[in-house]
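Protein data:
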Amino acid sequence: PNFGRIYDFPSRDYPLGTDQLGRDVLSRMIYGARVSMLVGLGAQVIVVLIGVPIGLVSGYLGGRVDLFLTRFVDVMYAFPRLLFVILVMSMLGAGLTNIFIAIGFTGWVGIARQTRAQVLSIKEKEFVEGARALGAGFFRQITRHILPSALTPIVVSVTFGIPEAIFTEAALSFIGVGINPPTPSWGQMVGENQQFLRSYWYLCVFPSIAIAVTMLSFTFFGDGVRDALDPKMK
């Protein structure tokens, strides 16, 4: 912090200005980018580790197992996700690790439903029935035949889930239940400076632009991945 340069507007020395403690906004935004990327990617790892196995088991086994898991997924899907995340964070407390857990444990529902739908279609294919006839067990059928064929929509879903996780982290930090100060986060930077929007607009505008551009970039990336992997789009 440079207390002699508090609330400096963007200049050659400080391209994005300084905040109420004289800290360089650009440096804090660069560090905040790391937080956003960690949340976006880390949360999706948890989403995949929970949602994909549930979808695989539900779609392959069918019957009562499928009915139970489907109803459980439907119940989870009925909760407003952001409110559910806020509830989980209020119980766990603020912090980067808790954000991973909160977003991951509330965001697996969509990918579980998508995986189940793919498995229901793939398990009736001839190559899966052939493997079953040759004596392939449950685990081998899932890992060697069904899962590789269902990877395309899973990968696409993950790429679209990253910007959603980034936005959720920004929203949590904005309302004060996300990243703990002094660790910078884009949402936290907007939230703690919102009262200065009229006087020192740059403190809120630049982090907001960073959030919007990052989300838009990952959305375009997801569109590109879908177009590249989905044969129907070619």
Observations:
- The domain at 27-229 is CATH 1.10.3720.10 (MetI-like fold).
- The chain has ten helices and no strands.
- Residues 72 and 78 are 10 Å apart (CA to CA).
